[in-house]
Amino acid sequence: DTEVTQTPKHLVMGMTNKKSLKCEQHMGHRAMYWYKQKAKKPPELMFVYSYEKLSINESVPSRFSPECPNSSLLNLHLHALQPEDSALYLCASSQDGWQAQETQYFGPGTRLLVL
Amino acid sequence: GEDVEQSLFLSVREGDSSVINCTYTDSSSTYLYWYKQEPGAGLQLLTYIFSNMDMKQDQRLTVLLNKKDKHLSLRIADTQTGDSAIYFCAESRYGGATNKLIFGTGTLLAVQP
Fold it and tell me: Looking at CA atoms only, how far is residue A76 from chain B in angstroms?
């Protein structure tokens, strides 16, 4: 099983709403990632968790709050977002983030629209 | 600079070969990757190459690496309409705590029947 699942597939929210994106993998991976992808652009790394600890935060605004409750689950809590935050949010996982060669497996993404 | 560059668009006829090019920046990158993204979907790993290799072949895919020029290419033989997608190269960089992928700008491959 090399599947990474993400829910919801689509999300529309207002600027005052609070919502969460969820990601799950059952490959025994210990590294999980959040990426943001705008239309016609490459994915941009937001956060990396390794062994349930935040190891990389790419200077992401605090209105995005990641959480890794266990090694299989990764959440992204959203609060007071702006319309420019509308994008495809991709989750990925890999072995542990420390190997020289690690394949990252991506989920299908959550398409977020902020009104 | 930080950018990993790719040409924006490539159009080929079904059955022809496609060659997608990538110029990366970090000479210390140990692994380089090619991912495929179909419309509305996540990224699918196609293949990767270790930096001490010049070439890797995997069925219809051939990866060529010129480390001196920091140039990577992906050749798809006998291109099919199902190969139409955006292709991203990516280099692996050490992020200070864990490794991270830096993606290229992406190439849209359009395959004409």
Answer: 17
Q: In chain A, positions 13-72, which contact chain B (CB-CB < 8 Å)?
A: 31, 40-43, 45, 48, 50, 55-56
User: How far is Cα A102 from Cα A86, in angstroms, rounded to an integer?
Assistant: 29
* Pairing of β B85-94 and β B107-112: antiparallel
A101-111 pLDDT, tens per residue?
Answer: 888 999 999 99
Query: Given a cut of 80, is residue A1 above it in pLDDT?
Result: no
Separation in Å, CA B107 to CA A11, B65, B93? 27, 18, 21
pLDDT tens for residues A35-58? 999 998 999 999 999 999 999 999
Residue B35 buriedness (CB in 10 A; 0-12 / 13-18 / 19+): buried
B3 touches chain A (CB under 8 A): no
Whole-angstrom distance, CA of residue B4 vs CA of residue B14: 28
